């Protein structure tokens, strides 16, 4: 493939990403406007539920982004008791798995998971409630949806290693934020960009400037739009994980890799923390 062909392909990919982002931004502002959690004011209860969702998804070997979808379903469905909330969480996760994964949990598996607290009729009824609350709009844009497209827009000054670190740390941050009530008020596009800004802290100044200019030109989002969110992410991360340790680990893993010989997907990091990044607190 010659240089001209590669340039045209890259341009086409960026234009496609811009179109997708525009559609996703319209959706998050209208049809899929992010609901605030409907159940009570106990932030720790929702946090525990979302962490439980991640544990289930991890044990089943499924993609973690399904949890962002399931938590959207959960937050959009009115419930009045903790038992209903637990049932709603189980059913929301199973519904998201059915729609987004190649395999899912059966209702009988959910009954066993609840240790007999609920039966299949309970789950069936709750699924109907969730779908009615959603008005059958079951494909909300998530922060990772935006992140995937944002990464397609990045300028050529971002080398392969920097791109990989940016992607992995941004995903880590958005996953972390999905557990906390305080971040439910923010649009997924802003959360994705704020996660990128957290990840950019150890990158070269010139590269960071290029990314900010590229994002504003192609998405209409600038740092001023997400400054409050970025500061809140910084504060929450400081209370829970060592972002410096994460950055250094990623840099170490990427250091022997060169842009001309490796792609981001070729690197498989294993990062060790004393606590799960999802076991978080405000």
UniProtKB/TrEMBL annotation:
Keyword Methyltransferase: no
InterPro entries referenced in this protein's UniProt entry, alphabetically: Cyclin (IPR039361), Cyclin-like_sf (IPR036915), Cyclin_C-dom (IPR004367), Cyclin_N (IPR006671)
Family matches, as SMART domains: Cyclin_C (SM01332)
A Pfam family this chain is assigned to: Cyclin_C
SUPFAM superfamilies given in the database record: Cyclin-like
Residues in Cyclin C-terminal domain copies: 141-266
Keywords, ordered alphabetically: Cyclin
Keyword Heme attributed: no
Residues making up the signal peptide according to the UniProt record: none
Protein name (database record): Cyclin C-terminal domain-containing protein
